[in-house]
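Let's sit down with a protein and look at its sequence and fold side by side. Please make up or recall a protein chain and show it to me in full. Label the sequence line and the structure token line clearly, so we can match residues to local backbone shapes. Go ahead whenever you are ready, and we will take it from there.
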Amino acid sequence: MSTENTGQPFFEDPDESLRQIAQNPAAYAHYLADFHRVVLDMQAKLEVLQRETRVHCRGTRVEGDKMGQAFLRSFPVEKSLNDILKNLKSVTSGLEKSAHKRHAHDEKVKEVKKQRKEKAQLKERKNNPTLQAAPENPRQQGGQGPNMGYGGPTSIYNLDRRESA
């Protein structure tokens, strides 16, 4: 098969499916959930192995052992399994965090777009304000004149000329 005829590479890109998963937050979460299930299953099986190894290693005694020597011999094996389990627990929590952070990233991108659009609209309104005519105040029934000074009556003794609320 020749690449001259089709213009396509001979082999397909192996990372294409992962590229599509990375672009979709729901697919990303689903993909990481599959890994999460595998890691949790591995963790459960290693916990059983840890328990059985502990029982076997601590129970293996050599003639002439003193108290605690079987435990001391089994300690390195148990420690290595404990370290593996600790790392698996951190992997599972990391997978969960990654899925949440990927979703939060998309939400933040949407929010930034919205904020920038609002900011552009505010800037446009600020630069090009629309001129509106001031509404005319019809005369109130009290027969008040058009020029009452700056703010109307300045003392409570002058309220008789003003209408009540």
Remarks:
- Residues 113 and 119 are 10 Å apart (CA to CA).
